């Protein structure tokens, strides 16, 4: 499947639903970042930007990237309308072929799953290298399928956070795993339904 297929799929997914007026931040982002001093953050696969807007509202300078131009344009529009246009750079990137420039205090990848060609381990390795010393890489993956997910593959396998860390393969002399667990939470879907879901949370700090 080509990169054009991925582009068409993700743009179609966003274009098929109305733009979120007030996209919400992810729970694991809020629990990880609350209390950290603001710095520069990179949001990989930002979607319509609930995380980016929340971070910018707390003083972070955000680079937010997604393969979907529809999602990126929606985020840029919301950022401008909330007076956060200077703080959020929303860019279209296919992370399979390009990675944003810059050095960051935090790189966040929430639910960066795709059925299309995407070398996630390589993307997350690049993310680790884009951290400043002391910076954090937060990878939050699905550990179960929500009833409203676009991906209802009954054979889906959810690699554990430790498996994800091993796949990324960052040198333990310079990157330390600070968190690798599978907490549960009550999630709310786009139509207001709720369900219990599992997250796979991996937090890696660059120490050198
Ligand atoms: C499941 S959504 C998660 C969106 C957002 N992070 C959130 O938590 O709501 C996955 C996102 O990854 C993006 N994505 C998928 N493949 C990508 C790629 N190759 N490059 C950049 N973004 C990609 C999709 O467009 C989509 O917005």
UniProtKB/TrEMBL annotation:
Keywords: Methyltransferase, Transferase
An example Gene Ontology biological process: methylation
Molecular function as annotated in GO: methyltransferase activity
Protein name from the UniProt record: Methyltransferase family protein
Organism this protein belongs to: Allonocardiopsis opalescens
């Amino acid at each position: 499947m080509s990169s054009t297929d991925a582009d068409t799929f993700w743009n179609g997914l966003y274009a098929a639903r109305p733009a979120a007026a007030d996209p919400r931040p992810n729970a694991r982002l809020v629990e990880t970042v609350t209390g950290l001093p603001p710095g520069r953050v990179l949001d990989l696969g930002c979607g319509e930007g609930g995380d980016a807007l929340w971070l910018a509202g707390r003083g972070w300078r955000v680079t937010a990237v997604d393969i979907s131009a529809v999602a990126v344009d929606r985020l840029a529009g919301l950022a401008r309308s909330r007076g956060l246009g200077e703080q959020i750079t929303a860019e279209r990137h296919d992370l399979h072929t390009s990675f944003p420039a810059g050095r960051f205090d935090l790189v966040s990848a929430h639910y960066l799953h795709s059925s299309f060609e995407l070398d996630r381990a390589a993307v997350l390795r690049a993310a680790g290298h884009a951290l400043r010393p002391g910076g954090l890489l937060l990878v939050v993956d699905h550990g179960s399928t929500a009833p409203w997910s676009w991906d209802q593959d009954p054979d889906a396998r959810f690699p554990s956070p430790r498996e994800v860390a091993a796949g990324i393969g960052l040198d333990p002399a310079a990157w330390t795993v600070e968190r690798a667990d599978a907490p549960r939470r009550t999630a709310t879907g786009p139509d207001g339904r709720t369900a219990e879901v599992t997250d796979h949370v991996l937090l890696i700090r660059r120490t050198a």
